[in-house]
Amino acid sequence: MTERPNGHRPTLEDVARRAGVSKSTVSRVINGEPKVRAAVADRVRQAVAALGYVPNQAARSLVTRRSNAVAVVVTEPQNRLFVDPYFDCHLRGIRQELVRRGAQPVLLFIEDPDDYPRVGTFLGGGHVDGALLFSLRTDDPLPAMVAHMDLPAVFGGRPAGGSGHRGRGYASVDADNRGGAREAVRHLVSLGRRRIGTITGPLDQTSAADRLDGYRDVLLDAPAELVAEGDFTLRGGADAMAALLDRCPDLDAVFVASDLMASGALRVLRERGRRVPEDVAVVGFDDLVAIAEATEPPLTTVRQDIEDMGRLMARLLFERASDEPASRDGRPAPSSVVTPTRLVVRASA
Amino acid sequence: MTERPNGHRPTLEDVARRAGVSKSTVSRVINGEPKVRAAVADRVRQAVAALGYVPNQAARSLVTRRSNAVAVVVTEPQNRLFVDPYFDCHLRGIRQELVRRGAQPVLLFIEDPDDYPRVGTFLGGGHVDGALLFSLRTDDPLPAMVAHMDLPAVFGGRPAGGSGHRGRGYASVDADNRGGAREAVRHLVSLGRRRIGTITGPLDQTSAADRLDGYRDVLLDAPAELVAEGDFTLRGGADAMAALLDRCPDLDAVFVASDLMASGALRVLRERGRRVPEDVAVVGFDDLVAIAEATEPPLTTVRQDIEDMGRLMARLLFERASDEPASRDGRPAPSSVVTPTRLVVRASA
What span, in angstroms and rounded, lies between the C-alpha atoms of B237 and B282? Predict the structure, then answer.
């Protein structure tokens, strides 16, 4: 149980005394600085826990003018997080890198248009040193909101508005969606497929639009009936697959813009008695191993390293928050990073 | 796309002009106050989004001295959230009630002992007006940390240390775990079962310990071999079921302390050729409908209204933060609420 020596709020001194180390060592451990031996750091942490010690934030802020917290803003219904391993993966990478640098991740959800001004107020209120955002829809006010704040920000995925906003500008980390889609469709062509459809994500999201562009780069003359819009959910993938089969019974391949949608599409193909890959070859996108290795047959898909993209977002944010070179007008230049994708061939195509 | 009339950071006036309403109407919508017609509120929100307007937090804080944000602290690995619908349900209730009152939920995870001081620093730094916490392990430093801060706090589940901490004290919302477990075991006894085992949660958590106490209230002389400790995961439930069957092949019933563990236990019973409920009757705990109605056979279980408990936590927090009557020493008294449970009979017992 927790012990308090004299009943007062425990101090840094109390922690140092109990752990048998100097106050500056306690400070270093608490601020997540390296160069403390693991055994010593453990003793300090045990003392912190036993005493219920809480560092004095007001005192720290005067020195650093920082909250040591970073907002992670997710524009999805909270329950999407619970069914889509994509987010789990992304957040794991982000969290790893933030915590490694001693920053507290603070998760905010936008589920509803009403949430924007409230989230904006929090972001602009000095409670966080920066923000990592996922804002992918064409009409999303987040890029403009963040551009008006003096807050370092990095977007996961390319925001729809480009980087033309006034203000601080922003960075983004995106996968090579278009290139990955091209590789997927070229693979289907190389297998001799002639009626290749695609199931897209919601086309007001840049990742979905970019993947469709990649499909069209290869199949310049693909008729509109071969394109069905999904919503990045399993059920959406199933519904779009059913629609494609109704419209084009002679379909012999489909490029599906996410693994979760692809697993829904595989279910429908099985129900309709189509063999995969013999009758219809299927390629997904993401390479979420928990899905892609579990489908029947295992899914050929385009790999993007989602966890690494999360880590990269956090790293970019710290660069922007610290000594990034300023651009001509004295503001840091927006910077965007596009990470490579590659085809992982399993059994479905 | 976002429009900015003169290139400056958009103001409350800009929003009012664009929406064709008064500044005070804009204020009311942004602060989540009721009494604005839905059509008018929609116009304001559209103007906010189109302009990328961000309310001026510094100005608001001077008036209210509040951040209008509430921390939700979850002491679980983030990926637990993605496999256990319990948390989804709890967070949904919390979020609903916070948002209804215009407060921004801010989600913090504690996955590692290193996280405590960092989370404590954030909680104590004036960034949130209160905290909702899930802290259930005996050696958890959170109750003591929060007790040292001038921060209203409500715990989900009864903290292990009781309410004896100095400082502000805290409230908690807990289900009647012991009473629910008693009802479950009495039900098994009433079915004529004679060798009734139990699979518990981790016994350093109060909810797990309370449910085991309820089991023992009814079966005073149950031998230790009938008790197997699980960890509230599906695999933990399966492993504990296998251990029980190895030790007590004549087992004819089992009370499992969570639905997720019960679904793992049912899988093992099926693999071992035991019919449910004919050979072994099974009762779970939680009534997570997504699980309990999907198991084969559907699960008889103890219902706790998890979403409502989330709402209740948020309501209690607002009461404590506002005009709760003070106790004798000038501090608000800790208050704890225990919500009722009830048995839902399906096919497994």
Answer: 12
